[in-house]
């Protein structure tokens, strides 16, 4: 549905060129929710703005539904853009217009008649659950309600693609959850493909099928959310994944524990697969596993758990136990302590 190939964008900064995007390629399939995560300045906004050519890339190809957008005339580009909705962190609502008019005015500009406009506004206000607020002004709405209006406005053009530029970053955790649920519903029930950018791993965790991690204008890691969570490769990706699990054990304690065995994180899917596998390990091998910390969270439709464990015993027994855990689909990774990388895997 969205194919970005070899996208390069350089800005002219006061201190010289800023290479915001360096040869970035990305492929989003129809019906997917695809998340791009990265720290501030990674290039996420520039990338998402290239998809509808709000930002023109210096080089590279932007295809949406097999149409090369960079080659279109201004009129054809306007048509193509009507198939790509967008929502923003700051909502971008007209302050002087009611909720109804915020959605209706852009529709009228496309030439739709009054009856169709009314039907569309009501349909999409219903979908976002805000029909009773149609005569309110944005200043009378909460942040979550403003984002709902913005979503209804984007959907009212009946696009196949929705771009979300940090749509939940200005919202509190409960409102964020509600907006993420709404995005899931839109994806499921209307079949809209969603490409979003965020700096919050919980957004990726809750709704994304796939994720790309960006740093310094490049995609450093990409794949199914499930795979990235169980086996992050790049140190930045590991930081993002670990941000969801606070195994707050002091380094000194970890160093001491490593003298009598190995400290490792075990990642697993399903609520019950981690602990039973660990119980079996203590029966089968001459080791004593001790859970130091653990938590379970949800990855879209599945539960995903992580345990920080101390495996006490001889190295050879630990090695066999780790091999056994891997065979039970538990991902095992040694924990770094003070630069001394005691890898178990
Ligand atoms: N119009 C511009 N002119 C000059 N530099 C820009 C412009 N837009 C972005 N940049 C620079 O490009 C780099 C990437 O910015 P971008 O906004 O895409 O990153 P980001 O990952 O979205 O970060 P943030 O979450 O802080 O917005 C940054 O160094 C930024 O300062």
From TrEMBL:
Pfam families, alphabetized: ABC_tran, NIL
Annotated SMART domains: AAA, NIL
Alphabetical UniProt keywords: Amino-acid transport, ATP-binding, Cell membrane, Membrane, Nucleotide-binding, Translocase, Transport
Sequence ranges assigned to domain ABC transporter in this UniProt record: 2-241
InterPro entries: AAA+_ATPase, ABC_transporter-like_ATP-bd, ABC_transporter-like_CS, ACT-like_dom_sf, MetN_ABC, MetN_ABC_transporter-like, NIL_domain, P-loop_NTPase
Record flagged with keyword Membrane: yes
A single BP term in Gene Ontology: amino acid transport
Claim: Repeat is one of the keywords in the record: no
Alphabetized CDD domains for the sequence: ABC_MetN_methionine_transporter
GO CC term (a single one): plasma membrane
GO molecular function per UniProt: ATP binding; ATP hydrolysis activity
Domain of life of the organism encoding this protein: Bacteria
Protein family (similarity comment): Belongs to the ABC transporter superfamily.
Name of the protein described by the UniProt record: Methionine ABC transporter ATP-binding protein
Organism, scientific name: Cytobacillus horneckiae
């Amino acid at each position: 549905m969205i194919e970005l190939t070899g996208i390069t964008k350089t800005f002219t900064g006061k201190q010289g060129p800023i290479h915001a995007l360096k040869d970035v390629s990305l492929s989003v399939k129809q019906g997917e929710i695809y998340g791009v995560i990265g720290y501030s300045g990674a290039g996420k906004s520039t990338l998402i703005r290239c998809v509808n050519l709000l930002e023109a890339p210096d080089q590279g190809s932007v295809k949406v539904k097999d149409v090369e957008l960079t080659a279109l005339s201004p009129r054809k580009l306007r048509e193509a853009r009507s198939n790509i909705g967008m929502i923003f962190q700051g909502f971008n609502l007209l302050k002087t217009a009611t909720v109804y008019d915020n959605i209706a005015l852009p529709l009228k500009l496309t030439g739709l008649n009054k009856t169709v406009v009314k039907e569309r506004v009501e349909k999409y206000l219903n979908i976002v659950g805000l029909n009773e607020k149609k005569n309110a002004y944005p200043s009378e709405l909460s942040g979550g309600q403003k984002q709902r209006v913005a979503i209804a406005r984007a959907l009212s053009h009946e696009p196949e693609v929705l771009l979300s530029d940090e749509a939940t970053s200005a919202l509190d955790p409960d409102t964020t959850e509600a907006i993420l649920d709404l995005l899931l519903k839109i994806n499921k029930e209307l079949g809209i493909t969603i490409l979003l950018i965020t700096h919050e791993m919980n957004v990726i965790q809750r709704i994304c099928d796939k994720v790309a991690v960006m740093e310094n204008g490049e995609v450093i890691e990409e794949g199914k959310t499930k795979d990235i969570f169980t086996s992050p490769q790049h140190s930045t990706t590991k930081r993002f994944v670990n941000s969801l699990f606070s195994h707050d054990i002091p380094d000194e304690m970890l160093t001491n524990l490593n003298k009598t065995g190995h400290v490792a994180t075990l990642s697993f899917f399903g609520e019950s697969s981690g602990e039973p596998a660990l119980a079996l390990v203590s029966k089968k091998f001459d080791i004593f596993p001790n859970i130091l910390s653990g938590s379970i969270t949800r990855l879209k439709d599945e539960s995903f758990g992580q345990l920080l464990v101390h495996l006490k015993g001889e190295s050879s027994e630990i090695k066999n136990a780790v091999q056994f855990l891997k065979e039970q689909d538990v991902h095992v990774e040694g924990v770094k302590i003070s630069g001394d990388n005691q890898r178990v895997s």
